[in-house]
Write a structure and sequence with these properties.
single chain; about 80 residues; alpha+beta; Arc Repressor Mutant, subunit A; 4 helices; about 10% strand; DNA binding domain, excisionase family
Length: about 80
């Protein structure tokens, strides 16, 4: 997996999920990806998505969600 260039990431950051803040909650993550609560926590606990635990809540950097989505797209294309 190759790292994304800063310019690419900045472009994607402005295009993808512009209505969401820089740090999202699990609920917002679920909305962004259209996934279940269980899958959201599985992705966090398995290290697929970077998250920070503050108290009892996870906070997920939006950039982590964008990286996850773009990596999934690359893998889907390469295995097709």
């Amino acid at each position: 997996m190759e790292a994304m260039k800063k310019s690419e990431l900045k472009e994607l950051y402005q295009m993808m999920f512009p209505e969401y803040p820089d740090i999202v909650t699990v609920r917002q993550l679920r909305e962004m990806l259209g996934i279940s609560r269980q899958l959201a926590y599985d992705l966090i606990n398995d290290g697929e998505l970077q998250a920070i635990k503050i108290g009892n809540n996870f906070k997920i950097p939006k950039v982590s969600v964008i990286n996850f989505v773009t990596e999934e797209q690359k893998e889907a294309k390469s295995s097709a």
